[in-house]
Amino acid sequence: AAWRSLLGLPADYDPYWAIRRHWRPELPLYQRLRYVDFMSYLPEQILAKVDRVSMAHALEVRVPFLARNVIELAFSLPESFIYRGGELKGGLKYAASPLLPASIIARGKQGFSVPLSLLRAALGPTQLLEEQVVSAFLRRAAG
Length: 143
Fold this sequence. Notes:
Elements: H1 2-7, H2 17-22, H3 29-56, H4 68-76, H5 79-82, H6 90-96, H7 102-106, H8 116-123, H9 129-142
């Protein structure tokens, strides 16, 4: 692909190497996927973003749900609890339902994402947002 040559990557470059390095075939599928996510996406994306943003605003951020005993508990839970009723986090929602209002339990995810409306306003309507971001990245990488 053109992006590989622009970035100087060899033709046999494996874009999934980061996933493969944490892949544990001995684990059940969903636990294996959670482990890969925990070992790669969480520290390399989520925690890195939180760290950058908090430091930029002189805030001290703690992650109490990443305490070792909480992590060990989470990974020890059976999949039948985690996916109770066929729903991701079904067991957690069931356990928290007496403590939280139904509107909180049923609310969808609210992620930590880039405000695309601000990017679109800054970049203008000439191209798709993705094309502008990728082409800008490739220009910087090549130059």
